[in-house]
Amino acid sequence: MPAQRKRPLALIIVPVVVALAAAGWYWKGRGGDEAQKFRTAAVEQGDIRVAISATGNLSALSTVDVGSEVSGKVTEVLVDFNDRVEKGQVIARIDPDTFEAQIEQGNAAIANARASLQTARANLRNAELDYGRKVELVAQKLIARGDLDQALAARDQARAQVASAEAQIRQQTASAQNAHLNLARTVIRSPVNGVVLARSVEPGQTVAASLQAPVLFKIAEDLSQMEIVLAVDESDIGQVKPAQAVSFTVDAFPDRRFRGEVRQVRLSSTNTSNVITYPVVVSVDNSDQTLLPGMTANAEIEVSRRDNVLKVPNAAMRFKPPVDEAAAEQQGAQRGGGMSDELPKIAATLKLDANQQAAFDAALAKMRERIAARTAAPPQGGNAPNLFGRGPGGSQSGGGNRGAGNASGAMRQRMLERFNQQFGEFRATLRDDQREQWERAVNELVGARRAPVYVLADGKPKPVLVRVGASDGSSTEIIGDLKAGDQVIVGVQVAEPAK
User: Fold this and answer.
1) Of the candidates 420, 470, 465, which has an alpha carbon nearest to the alpha carbon of residue 446?
2) What DSSP designation does 458 have?
3) Beta-carbon count within 10 A of 235 CB
4) Domains along the chain?
5) At 233, is the pLDDT very low, low, confident or very high (cuts 50, 70, 90)?
6) What pTM was estimated for this model as a whole?
């Protein structure tokens, strides 16, 4: 009897287990299909602008501090803030009474020195006559030799007194000239044509110029041309060059964008809390006098601009599909973006003649034979990159790593040397201008960074190796076997779990 009860129970349990297993397999398969849905974005044709952000303050090209070279009480101030002044215009006066008195004193000292000179010259004439008489008396042996020596000494002293009196006159004259200069300095004039930015003196105020000239006025020479001194981080300064375009905004006009140009990249660095910055001077046209000195400018330096190029979202450059054998095979079969595919485009720009074209075709054919040989028989170790920046099978070395295919400086140099050897006969047929253009394009091609982007082929990711160009932070320039409108994968769309 118990055995009969177990048999109906087993007949019930087994079908239930089978049904649950089938349902689990169904939902697992359904979830796996939904997990393999990809998000895509279109390849676009457009412009890429790479810019560096920095801040700085607007200032006039030349700002002059006008001070006083003499001390005294200010009697007049003839200009105010924002007044336009011309070179030589009187802008303030200092009380001249002290210096006029000094001039009178100097004139009196000169007159006294001239009188002393007359006295010294009279004494000199008397000493010379006395010396002459005593010379005759000594010759007649009527006086002692010592009397002659005393007469000689008196004559020399009289000559020295004359020289001293003449020097005194020159000294007093120079002193009087200095007093005249100080009197002229009591009239303060503008040294340049410009605008008064600041005035720090009032009538009746006393200025003291004992150690340094006090600043009374600040005059901007020309506000129609201004400059910004930007503080650029050391990580970005290598990209900044003179004549690059600059756009900036100021808080006073948030809806307006102003333009400028890099004029100078200064070598002196500034260390602020261990952050190194370099000053970059930007020239700004302010013909409409809208901008004012001291305004804070939020600027962008355009270090690179690429017009009408193919670009993809940066997410497409970051996407990496799950690693499986099918993807590896697809990536291994990928050939686009290699040097052998881009060299004919470079050669087409050189306008080759028949002999040059034949030499190029021969060199290119040999290069493709080497690539095919390496693909068929990978080198020992399997992952060593070849001349063309790709690992075994023609793919990027490293199995699709985003940094793969980007050779180091030493490797690039070896690649370039070997490449020049392979195309040596072709280069020998080129004219100087053609050779220069060819070498420039090849250097750019060898040094270019390459990475795969993925497109959908039969519902699966298919890698396309492209050359990577400039990036503006949201999009990246690409060069390869893609065209505008092609859909590239930017991510995986994972289905929500069933409830």
Assistant:
1) 420
2) T
3) 9
4) 51-61+222-308 (2.40.30.170), 67-95+186-218 (2.40.50.100), 97-183 (1.10.287.470), 319-493 (no CATH)
5) very high
6) 0.59
